[in-house]
Amino acid sequence: MRIGQGFDVHAFGPGDHTMLGGVKVPHTHGVVAHSDGDVVIHALCDALLGALALGDIGQHFPPSDERWRDADSRSFLRHCQLLLRERGYRLGNADITVIAERPKVGPHAPAMRAVLAADLDCSVDDISVKATTSEKLGFTGRSEGIAAMAVVLLQRA
Ligand SMILES: Nc1ccn([C@@H]2O[C@H](COP(=O)(O)O)[C@@H](O)[C@H]2O)c(=O)n1
Ligand SMILES: C[C@@]1(CO)OP(=O)(O)OP(=O)(O)OC[C@H]1O
């Protein structure tokens, strides 16, 4: 078994939705990012890459590379799943926490779990998506941005 953890942050900016776990969540703001700025998937990718000791998302998909501009972050996740399979692992389970005052994540969590499970070729029961505010403290509390943390356990396939 191998364990990995990931963390990602994006600032809020102009826009009317935020991509979270591959789901388009309506919001008063978008996020500032090179790709679609999906903090859930970015944190999850970093956790998967960390578990494999294969660096981080920025090394695999450099922000300096125009190919990743406005990219669908699900393509990053599918790449990580390929790396997992190539090395003889499968996801045991993943636990993800979004930190934001808004948008409310709870109503969208089932759809996010379904998307992530599809891309990681696992059961939705192996993917947890939850959320917390930071009680109006710090940059998330001031609604300046959104953060996500992920922990994964990999098992031999
Ligand atoms: N962006 C968020 C933040 C929170 N939730 C849900 O609300 C519950 C209460 O949050 P507190 O930070 O006040 O404890 C939390 O447990 C989540 O269920 C959410 O859906 N989206
Ligand atoms: C995803 C990448 C893609 O270029 O850019 P961003 O969308 O800015 O997201 P970040 O979380 O900063 O990760 C770095 C990059 O890999």
TrEMBL record:
Cofactor, how bound (note): Binds 1 divalent metal cation per subunit.
Pathway annotation from the record: Isoprenoid biosynthesis; isopentenyl diphosphate biosynthesis via DXP pathway; isopentenyl diphosphate from 1-deoxy-D-xylulose 5-phosphate: step 4/6
Reaction catalysis annotation: 4-CDP-2-C-methyl-D-erythritol 2-phosphate = 2-C-methyl-D-erythritol 2,4-cyclic diphosphate + CMP
Keyword Metal-binding found: yes
UniProt-annotated site: Transition state stabilizer, residues: H34, T133
EC code(s) of this entry: 4.6.1.12
Keyword vocabulary terms for this entry: Isoprene biosynthesis, Lyase, Metal-binding
Residues involved in a divalent metal cation binding: D8, H10, H42
Catalytic class of the enzyme: lyase
Residues reported in the UniProt entry to bind 4-CDP-2-C-methyl-D-erythritol 2-phosphate: D8, V9, H10, H34, S35, D56, I57, G58, T132, T133, S134, E135, F139, R142
Gene3D superfamilies, per the entry: 2-C-methyl-D-erythritol 2,4-cyclodiphosphate synthase
Protein name as catalogued: 2-C-methyl-D-erythritol 2,4-cyclodiphosphate synthase
Originating organism: Tahibacter aquaticus
Encoding gene, per UniProt annotation: ispF
